[in-house]
Amino acid sequence: MPVEKLSVEQQRWAEDFYRHMSWTFPEDDLVDGDEETDAPDPAVTDFEQIAMLEKKVDELYAQGNLIKFCRALFGGFKKAHKAVRQAITSAKSKKTRDIQPFVAEINAGITSLSFYVGEFEDALAVIGDQIPLLQNAHGQLQQHRFQFMELASKQKNYQKKLRSFESADQEVQKHFDQITTHHRASHVDDANKAIASFEKSLLKMKAVVA
């Protein structure tokens, strides 16, 4: 039936019906453009996502700051950090419309940085585990000092051997102190060099005792 032939009551009913239909399907009620959606602002979401990832990268870099004292790991750590920083810069660029490829690169970089930090911490832990063992080995040889002193008091030729023993003992102790100092400073390479020197000096001390 044409609309113009409807009664006033029928027209009011029709208007109420269509108004009800618009409430039932709100996505169709966009003619005036006054309705606001609840969808998040992509720009804000992207910014927050990159900010969180960048914070994680900075934290890992700070943790791995001392990796420069471990040549075996420093090159890879430095390269991974450079790559992830470039990805962050690209993701924050105004020209970038889709940050997800860069997010994937950043996450991969975070994984790499975490690996190097973990390897560095493991290397320090290995040195820390060796310290009491080295100290114990040295202590066992030091127990022979009283025998040397007793023999030196009775025989002159043992006085020279006592001096050799004490010289070797001091050399071993010097390297042990270097190991602990470098370990506290997280200087992996220097600590390993000191361990090698310690072991050589310990062999000399064993030779004197033998």
Total number of β-strand segments?
Answer: 0
Secondary-structure element series:
HHHHHHH
Question: How much β-strand is present in the residues?
Answer: under 5%
Per the principal axes of the C-alpha atoms, what is the gross shape?
rod-shaped
| Helix residue percentage | over 70%
- Overall pLDDT: 82
Q: Low-confidence parts, pLDDT < 50 over ≥5 residues?
A: 20-44
Question: Whole-number radius of gyration?
Answer: 38 Å
Tell me about the largest β-sheet: none
> What's the total helix number?
7
- Determine the N-to-C terminus distance: 121 Å
Query: Class by helix and strand content?
Result: mainly alpha
Protein described:
- α2 packs antiparallel against α3.
- This protein has helices at residues 8-24, 42-63, 71-91, 100-142, 145-154, 157-184, 188-209.
- The N and C termini lie far apart (121 Å).
- It is built from 7 helices and no strands.
- It is mainly alpha-helical and 210 residues long.
Short overview:
With 210 residues, this protein is mainly α.
Describe this protein with a few key phrases:
0% strand; 78% helix; 210 residues
Chart the SSEs and their pairings.
Layout: H1 8-24, H2 42-63, H3 71-91, H4 100-142, H5 145-154, H6 157-184, H7 188-209
